Amino acid sequence: MQRPMFFKRLLTGRSAVIALPYAWLLAFFALPFLIVLKISVSEMETVHFKDLISYADGIWRLAIKTSNYIFITEDELYIKAYLASLKYAAITTVGCLFIGYPFAYFMARAKAAIQPALLMLVMLPFWTSFLLRVYAWKGLLGEHGWVSEAIIGLGLDNLLLAAGMIPVAGKLMNSPFSLVIGMVYTYLPFMILPLYANLAKLDLRLLEAASDLGATPWQAFWRITVPLSKAGIIAGSMLVFIPCVGEFVIPELLGGPQTLMIGRVLWDEFFSNNDWPMASAVAVVMVLLIIVPLALFNKYQAESQANAGAKS
């Protein structure tokens, strides 16, 4: 009688709360990733894949194809696409942080009565189709678009040309500039929301104490507000950087030949070349480029917190 009660308790309460997220990750991340990994090391025959493990004449055979991964390290196209994806994702993350932090700070310091309205303004773009918003930027940055006309009228296109963000003065579309603008605009809410949630919980008495001790508002901001909002900065940066690395729609619609990213390479391998093992290998390497540094960072954070707790 005790054993059924044990399993009943195991499936309820805390165990069930912990099991549900793990089951979700297993079903929708781990298993699909393992399937893609299996395809990446398989040999393709027309529309079928050879079995990795086969048995014939009393002999078990394991056939793993590693040539796709070797080819990725040897072909400049893939290396440049990975580096470009990381570069534009990093630029987008910095741009979102530069714009989003002041806005989140203003929201956290605003009157409680208007904070819901400000929060709604941040979430308002989600009420519109993602594709419509990207297409809108094609019109704004295209020929005779009012944003394009304003930039050219102010002579800022020459600065963008000198910075290598546009290929020709007066042409803003299909350039690194249009790509970055579209990605910053699209992913800015993902930076603002974690920062706002973190800054709204900041104890203002710490700033008052810093002021009483003679710190200027700028010093208090850099020495108190920014360090205490580090968790929000990291969370927002991860929410922006990770999807930006594999972005396909924005580079396709707003970028150009100079902005080849790994998402476009994946599309070509899957649907143009119909080379699923190669495309799967590209996807696996992309996932590892994101997960491995993130796992190492999380491990470092956990060790730092453990050391801080031990010292206290």
Automatic annotation (TrEMBL):
Organism: Roseateles oligotrophus
Domain ABC transmembrane type-1: 82-297
Topology with respect to the bilayer: Multi-pass membrane protein
Name by which UniProt lists this protein: ABC transporter permease subunit
Transmembrane segments: 21-41, 88-106, 118-138, 150-170, 177-197, 276-297
Compartment annotation: Cell membrane
Annotated keywords: Cell membrane, Membrane, Transmembrane, Transmembrane helix, Transport
Any Pfam family: BPD_transp_1
InterPro entries reported for this sequence: MetI-like, MetI-like_sf
Entry similarity comment: Belongs to the binding-protein-dependent transport system permease family. CysTW subfamily.
Domain of life: Bacteria
